[in-house]
Write a structure and sequence with these properties.
The complex is a heterodimer. Chain A contains five helices and eight strands, in the order E-H-H-E-E-E-E-E-E-H-E-H-H. Chain A is an alpha+beta fold. Chain A is elongated and about 60 Å long. In chain B, helix 5 crosses helix 12 and helix 7 crosses helix 12. In chain B, 75% of the residues lie in helices and 1% in strands. Chain B folds into two domains: 51 residues, no CATH class; 222 residues, MetI-like (MetI-like fold, Orthogonal Bundle), CATH 1.10.3720.10. The longest helix of chain B is centred in the middle third of the chain and has 38 residues. By secondary structure, chain B is mainly α. Classes of the chains: A alpha+beta, B mainly alpha.
Chain lengths: 176, 332
């Protein structure tokens, strides 16, 4: 078995998410305290605060995770534990998100867009954000595995792989 | 997706703050305030206004305070579910609005459902059968819907509803249910009356949406991947539904943000013509009489609908089309 290549989330990448979770929880939590007995206000703001708390918890789990890749498979260590052999991967998804239309720069470049890579097995799913250190290298490696093991990928995913230069070869990206 | 929603919700905060400031400035812009409007009306009727009483009321309502202080009281009140006091009705805004808000929601929701239920199949049919008799007929009806003013259609529909269906003219329920607690009979009466305003308000939106969906779908159907899919033997239905239809839905979904406030504000004139007990006529009256907290709450509500609508459409778009936008300069 080959030595695993490890990928981690750098602190500076997750700090912004921690700050956003805390800001949101504080801003929407304050009216919750002020609301007193108003059930409608408490319900709306309570739900939003819960969403920010969940996001903070999810960020913490991501921060504590390490993604390991070998020629045999991929797994996640730390707060999120999951493992998949390449032969067990049923679906790969590479999704693109941008909070402002027409803004193309990634978070690392101070922009508002990011990507999420999701590998799904029978009962396991591994999610990787583009803020992870060495995401390009990791995506290329997963792209190669996708071609080698003929893993399922949606046309959108293939187009996205090609757009970031992580498609194993042009013919793979064109197979819709 | 959670991360996306979080970021979008955070961007909503400065937007709503800016809107609240603008709304407050706009409702304060006309010279004078609610009391000066009332005094002018009293004097126009030949009645005298007691200066001491006016000063007392000005202090009572906080109209003598600086603008920023009035804004702060209004804003913090809203965050606690207290939308202020209506000068005209002499009641808290929440009590004044009461049932009207629920009825407005019901009317708006029904109108949106009607718009989509009508526009979607017609738009798809028109695009797939371009230049057919059906397409021409539906396009003609669509143009008719776009060109007919809502208030005119409202009058025609009221006449038709009374003559052919025996429905009482105006209102959202039969007169005996007005100011009565909610009951099954009242619910049925509302449903019987609802279709008239729904058709009137929804027609122009439906026509516009049919045009947009038809144009978008035609663009997609003429792309090479559709030709390739057909050449490879994919059934026409699958070649339509699998990608072209999904792609053409993007502007449809992006429209949600505009649809919500349009339906609420567009319904105001129709509500006056049809005497509907919704929020629209009340908003117009509040703006006219400078009932600042009532008008401000309504305007903030409309702004909130817009912002929430844009948020919902963005989330739906992100879920539907997670492709990298190369044209916008991607992240790499």
């Amino acid at each position: 078995m080959s030595a695993p290549e490890q990928f981690r989330y750098p602190s500076r990448a997750v700090m912004k998410d921690y700050a956003q979770a805390a800001t949101g929880a504080l801003i929407f939590g304050a009216p919750l305290i002020l609301a007193g007995g108003n059930i409608y206000v408490a319900t709306i703001f309570g739900a939003i605060v819960l969403m920010f708390v969940t996001f903070g918890w999810s960020t913490w789990r991501r921060h504590r995770s390490v993604i390991c890749v070998t020629d045999e498979g991929i797994w996640s260590e730390g707060a999120r534990t999951a493992a998949l052999r390449w032969t067990d991967v049923r679906q790969i998804e590479l999704r693109y998100f941008a909070t402002r239309r027409g803004r193309g720069r990634s978070e690392r470049d101070g922009g508002d867009s990011w990507m999420q890579l999701k590998l799904t097995g029978d009962r396991v799913a591994i999610r990787i954000d583009s803020s992870i250190e060495g995401f390009d290298r990791l995506a290329r490696r997963i792209g190669r595995a996708a071609q080698e093991f003929d893993l399922g990928a949606t046309p959108t995913t293939k187009v996205n792989f090609a757009a970031i230069g992580a498609a194993p070869d042009p013919s793979w990206a064109k197979q819709a | 997706m959670l991360r996306y929603i979080i970021k979008r919700v955070l961007t909503m905060i400065p937007t709503l703050c800016a809107i609240s400031v603008l709304v407050f400035i706009i409702i304060q812009l006309p010279p004078g305030d609610f009391l000066t409007t009332q005094i002018a009306e009293l004097r126009a009727q030949g009645m005298d206004a007691n200066n001491a009483k006016i000063e007392f009321l000005r202090q009572q309502y906080g109209l003598d305070r600086p603008m920023w202080e009035q804004y702060a009281i209004w804003l913090f009140g809203m965050l606690q579910g207290d939308f202020g006091y209506s000068f005209e009705y002499d009641l808290p805004v929440t009590e004044v609005v009461g049932d009207r808000l629920y009825l407005s929601f019901l009317l708006s929701f029904a109108t949106i459902l009607f718009t989509w239920a009508m526009a979607f199949p017609i738009g798809v049919y028109s695009a797939v059968n371009q230049y057919s008799v059906g397409d021409h007929a539906l396009t003609f009806i669509g143009f008719l819907g776009l060109a007919t003013p809502n208030f005119l259609l409202a009058l025609v529909m009221m006449y038709l509803a009374k003559v052919h269906f025996g429905i009482s003219i105006g209102g959202l329920m039969d007169p005996q249910y007005l100011d009565q607690p909610f009951s099954y009979g009242k619910f049925i009466s509302v449903l019987e009356h609802l279709w008239v305003p729904v058709i009137v308000i929804g027609t122009s939106g439906t026509a516009g949406m049919i045009r947009r969906l038809r144009a978008n779908l035609l663009d997609e159907l003429q792309k090479q991947y559709v030709t390739t899919a057909r050449a490879k033997g994919l059934s026409p239905r699958r070649a339509l539904i699998k990608y072209p239809l999904r792609m053409s839905l993007n502007p449809f979904i992006a429209d949600i943000g505009n649809l919500l406030p349009q339906v609420v504000s567009g319904a105001a004139v129709v509500s006056m013509v049809l005497s509907l007990p919704t929020t629209g006529p009340m908003l117009i009256e509040a703006l006219r009489s400078q009932d600042m907290y009532l008008a401000g709450s309504f305007l903030m509500f409309l702004a909130m609908l817009t912002v929430v609508g844009v948020l919902l459409s963005d989330i739906a778009l992100a879920a539907l089309d997670p492709r990298i936008r190369l044209g916008a300069g991607t992240e790499r």
